[in-house]
Amino acid sequence: MYKLILVVSFLFSMAGCAFTDTEALLQSMYNVPSSGSSKFDGTKYIRMSNVVCNSVMFELYQDTKKAERGLVLLESGTTEIENIGDGKSLHFKLDGELYSYNTGDVVTEHDTVPMGQRLNIPFSHKTYIIPEKVIRQAAGSEEFLVKLDLANGTFIEGTCSPLTLAQAKDQDTKPGNYSAPNITQEHVDTANRISAQNGFREFVEMMDSTAW
């Protein structure tokens, strides 16, 4: 999915579109915030959707009760039609420190989520409960990597922190990747503005600014 961001940035620049057009398009697709409250009991909630690390995607959610317990509900999955593994199938690597989390779900949920106004993508996911302090650590880390185990014994992984130009070009040359020629630092900077780690940072800001 990071490749898609780079390609969108590259194609918009080739078409002569203004930076603000590209930025607005990408912000409508990735790291989409929402919030509200229950009319029933006044419970408040915050959510960050379409948080993408390559083929791994997250949705972060916290409400009044979870905030009181210092917890965040994380929907974690893939942008492909796959079944997620059981047990400790979600793994974070934050500046070299490893964390693994259990899912309580037996069955993988298969949804379709909107990416902007015209694009819908699959989202195969399970639910994980993550301590709020780890979400904050991920948001502030230098290197944020994720690995997700699949039910068939394989795994997918992604880089959630911003990439350098050299790292982006290295991804571009890997087999099976769609190649956007002449990727520049400007394209990478545009993609990094809506990196998954920025989504985590924005979610932390939402937690801190919400009067629970």
Automatic annotation (TrEMBL):
Keywords: Signal. Residues 1-20 form the signal peptide. The keyword Signal applies. This is Lipoprotein.
